[in-house]
Design goal:
The complex is a heterodimer.
Chain A: H1 3-23, H2 30-67, H3 71-91, H4 108-112, H5 142-148, H6 161-169, H7 194-218, H8 227-232, H9 236-265, H10 279-295, E1 297-299, E2 305-307, H11 311-318, H12 320-339, H13 344-347, H14 355-380
Antiparallel strand pairs in A: 1-2
Chain B: H1 3-22, H2 58-72, E1 91-92, H3 97-100, E2 126-135, E3 141-142, E4 154-155, E5 164-175, E6 181-192, E7 204-209, H4 216-220, H5 224-236, E8 247-250, E9 255-258, H6 270-282, H7 299-303, H8 317-329, H9 341-352, E10 363-364, E11 382-383, E12 391-393, E13 411-413, H10 423-427, E14 431-432, E15 438-439, H11 441-446, H12 453-461, H13 464-475
Antiparallel strand pairs in B: 1-4, 2-3, 2-7, 5-6, 8-9, 10-11, 12-13, 14-15
Helix pairs in contact in B: 2-8, 6-8, 9-13
Classes of the chains: A mainly alpha, B alpha+beta.
Chain lengths: 391, 477
């Protein structure tokens, strides 16, 4: 064991001891738990509702583009996508505990799978006739595209945010900017299979909205038998799910899949929104989504602020210092994420000490620290069954 | 181990004990719920098979994430602008590991309710191993001279697809002692539309479905002596259960080793399994498997462009190592509702029917055979995989008639049962056994013949509620 490993092991040991001491504190009051769980449900419903509202605006812009393809209407459709991603990104804090979005029936894979093998959907450089669009035998209804999604490979993505993104931007072949798909791709007589491309884009957009509506129904208040009804009665088990959601998003997804892999391979294929060069916002919005859940707070699309009983308060009642450390670390992560410069595929390149990789590394380190703090915070209220890194 | 570190471990053990006592009774995991010891994750749902071992450190988690990225990544035809991932084919079955092991889970079997359509897509996640009588290199199967050791159902442009899978499904009927009827589906496989001329007359075909990958590194770390001990115990015990070890060639260790992986325990290490699958299933060469699997008569295959700008190998050792590490580190999810009355009853029935004779519940892990591909955190864990990792004669009904090293055509390795109840969550189906013929746990039990026939007969005598309890227990693992 070298010195660094030794320090690592000692730090880990110390962490466990501290947690053990804290975990002896009494479990929170049932009423306090219920209040946090109920407010979380309100927050989830609000987040998905705002995500749907933004997606509807995107759909309208896309419909305008498909009716009258032009450089301007394409630009408007792209803006619609960029704005809608701001809201969807924050909802990713509700993944990873087998809730409505990613239980056995959940639509998550249909909505947000990446990376995309572009040639599964449409033409790519050197392959003008590839993809479902250029295969006249392929049916392009919502149901058929949903069935084709990740069929035969996880990158065989036919639906969701990143399929729409590719259809709006095209391949990112530029060193400095995003993809540059010509609007003529959608004009009959100019783009090959323009009619099929229009049909495809309209169908996957509608499918995405269907899935958002499904999630809103699962979290709708006042229903007798939806997920929310059961969730609100779940007590500490529901709190455990809340923590798993933000903990796994922190460690496995945000730090791991989104940033560590990209930094390690320095490959454009490893950035989430590679066609639009919007990956830096994916990272910020995920980090914000985690803070929303922790603070029980959500700044809505109409500018109003939703605020209520929070996980932070629940932890603070048992261990105020732990709650404070967690709050600070989450804020640090957001600030670090906001410092990452677009385009992300440029930001990850170069030596470890180059400014871009250093900014990405700093964000990773903060998110890792944050996941450990979240684990310790969960321990403080008597939750140990976590599927993320142990504190 | 230094004295300081030993002291530290003692401290840690003490701390964990406090932690377990301090947590509310319903939150602490009991030992047999911790399916993978300290590696266990509390996970269900779509991502249940996707989490890293809970006790990995940060550097290991980074390696896990990088390995995962290459695991699910599509490889593309050479030449392409992305040299880091070109080299697909010339012949192949899937474009990525994740294409068959979807979400690191179980591949989708063919739809046995429909006849195969010659124009349709080949089944995903089910491949046909091929061989002819006799022994091949190192005592393994002898490949068909034209089609090699498996049928590749896809090819890059300009290269012919080897052929397609042909299928007939027979329906078998039976009755439980309580009068309830059941039906089973028995698929029989063949090859059709062969592009390079007829295959050998005595071609042997073994269908293989891609299994879920949780806990693979833990299975690899079960001490060899434990597996040999299973065989010795079964040999000494009365009754028909006589498990055998398969001894197989390992390309990484360059020697014969005890087989653990694959439906016939025909592979010893995860590294060998992974590198062999890269070349065999995706057409990606590596330093241990530098040759594309084009046979001598397949001219178009041999002439096709190579990936990685023509240099061998198409996947470098570091990336391959990361993909192996990823699989070795996939955590088994914790048991669900082990205290439920029906589950508890099912457990008693499982023991009564002697299922545990082969589906051995628990082990303590030792060292990994190839430490550079696995985390030291996998060592010393008390795990609950429910397998003896031995070959058993499972009777004619299940037999594929294709030997593989020491395994006969009737032999199958006892598959681990952990995670079986979560396959539906992850993969939208629960089709079990080597070709996915069983629709759920009960049908899989009903296919047990040969050495396991006594257990099957006991299940036939069970009441409906006993059968349900047995299934519920297995699905809780």
């Amino acid at each position: 064991m070298n010195k660094r490993e030794m320090l690592h092991a000692m730090a880990a040991g110390l962490g466990s001891l501290l947690c053990a001491a804290r975990a002896r504190a009494a479990a929170p009051e049932a009423a306090a738990i219920d209040a946090v769980v109920q407010h979380y449900a309100v927050l989830v419903h609000a987040c998905y509702s705002d995500s749907l509202a933004a997606a509807l605006a995107m759909q309208q812009a896309i419909a305008g583009f498909l009716a009258h393809p032009s450089a301007d209407s394409l630009k408007a459709a792209r803006s619609g996508w960029i704005d809608a991603r701001e809201w969807y990104g924050q909802t990713e804090a509700f993944r990873f505990y087998a809730g409505p979005v990613d239980d056995g029936k959940g639509p998550e894979q249909r909505m947000n799978t990446w990376p995309v093998d572009e040639s599964y959907i449409d033409y790519v450089r050197d392959r003008p006739d590839s993809g479902l669009i250029n295969n006249p035998k392929a049916v392009l209804t919502k149901a058929a595209l949903a069935a084709a999604n990740i069929r035969g490979g996880l990158e065989n993505v036919s639906t969701g945010w990143h399929a729409i993104e590719f259809l709006l931007w095209g391949q990112d072949l530029s060193e400095t900017g995003p993809g540059d798909r010509p609007f003529e791709d959608y004009v009959d007589g100019k783009g090959l299979h323009a009619d099929r491309r229009r049909q495809y884009l309209a169908a996957v957009t509608e499918l995405l909205l269907d899935d958002l509506r499904y999630l809103i129904a699962a979290w709708a208040p006042g229903a007798k038998a939806n997920y929310r009804a059961k969730f609100e009665r779940g007590g500490l088990e529901s709190v455990r799910r809340i923590v798993i959601g933000i903990g796994a998003l922190s460690r496995a997804e945000l730090a791991g899949e989104r940033m560590e892999v990209a930094l390690n391979t320095q490959d454009q294929e490893d950035e989430q929104s590679c066609f639009s060069d919007n990956t830096h916002r994916d990272i910020v919005n995920n980090a914000l989504g985690i803070e929303n859940v922790w603070l029980g707070r959500f700044k809505r699309r109409d500018g109003s602020l939703l605020q209520g009983p929070s996980l932070r308060e629940l932890v603070a009642a048992q261990d105020a210092a732990q709650a404070e450390r967690t709050t600070r670390q989450i804020a640090t992560s957001i600030a670090a994420a906001q410092a990452i410069q677009p385009p992300f595929d440029h930001e990850i390149r170069g030596s470890r000490s180059a400014p871009g990789p250093m900014r990405v590394r700093a964000t990773i380190d903060s998110v890792l620290a944050q996941s450990r703090e979240l684990g310790a915070a969960a321990n403080a209220i008597g939750i140990t069954r976590l599927n993320m890194v142990k504190p | 181990m230094t004295r300081l570190r030993r002291g530290l471990l003692a401290l840690l053990a003490g701390a964990n004990a406090v932690l377990l006592h301090a947590a509310p009774a319903d939150d602490a995991l009991k030992p047999d719920e911790q399916t993978g010891g300290a590696t266990t994750v509390a996970a269900t749902g779509r991502n249940a098979f996707s989490f890293a071992a809970a006790n990995l450190n940060d550097d290991e988690r980074t390696r896990f994430a990088v390995g995962n990225s290459f695991f699910r990544r599509n490889w593309v035809e050479a030449p392409s602008s992305t040299a880091a991932r070109d080299g697909l084919g010339p012949h192949f079955i899937a474009r990525s590991c994740g294409g068959c092991h979807v979400q690191s889970g179980r591949g989708a079997p063919p739809d046995y309710t429909k006849p195969f359509d010659a124009r349709g897509e080949p089944p995903i996640a089910l491949l046909l191993r091929l061989s002819i009588p006799g022994e091949g290199p190192h005592g393994g199967p002898r490949p068909d001279p034209i089609y090699g050791d498996q049928l590749r159902t896809l090819a890059v442009p300009g290269v012919r697809v080897e052929g397609r899978i042909a299928l007939q499904v027979h329906t078998l009927r039976g009755t439980f002692a309580d009068g309830t009827r059941y039906t089973l589906r028995q698929p029989r496989f063949g090859v059709a539309d062969l592009a390079y001329g007829p295959a050998s007359k005595d071609l042997m075909i073994g269908p293989r479905l891609a299994p879920q990958l949780i806990g693979m590194g833990l299975l690899e770390s079960i001490p060899e002596a434990e597996i040999l001990g299973n065989a010795a115990r079964q040999a000494a015990a009365p009754g028909p259960v006589k498990g055998q070890v398969n001894q197989v060639w390992d390309a990484f260790e360059q020697r014969m080793m005890l087989g653990r992986f694959g439906w016939k325990a025909n592979v010893a290490t995860l590294a060998h399994q992974t590198a062999a699958a890269f070349v065999g299933d995706i057409g990606i060469t590596s330093s241990r498997f530098p040759d594309e699997s084009c046979t001598f008569t397949q001219d178009d295959c041999r002439a096709a462009p190579r990936g990685a700008k023509g240099e061998v190998p198409e996947i470098d050792d570091r990336t391959l190592g990361d993909v192996v590490f990823y699989q070795a580190s996939l955590a088994p999810p914790a048991r669900r509702q082990p205290g439920d009355a029906q589950v508890v009853r099912g457990r008693a029935l499982f023991e009564q029917a002697q299922c545990a004779a082969c589906h051995r519940p628990s082990y303590v892990t030792g060292d990994s055979p190839l430490p550079s591909f696995a985390s030291p955190a996998l060592k010393g864990q008390t795990i609950w995989p429910y397998t003896d990792l031995l070959l058993h004669d499972m009777g004619d009904g299940l037999a594929d008639g294709r030997p593989d090293f020491g395994a006969s055509g009737r032999h199958w390795r006892t598959p681990p049962l952990w995670g079986v109840g979560l396959i539906r969550d992850v993969n939208d189906h629960q089709q079990l056994l080597h070709d996915g013929r069983a629709r759920g746990v009960l049908e899989a039990v009903l296919w047990h013949g040969g050495e396991a026939d006594t257990s099957r007969r006991q299940v036939l005598k069970m009441t409906a509620s006993e059968r349900a309890a047995l299934v519920r227990f297995v699905e809780s693992l």
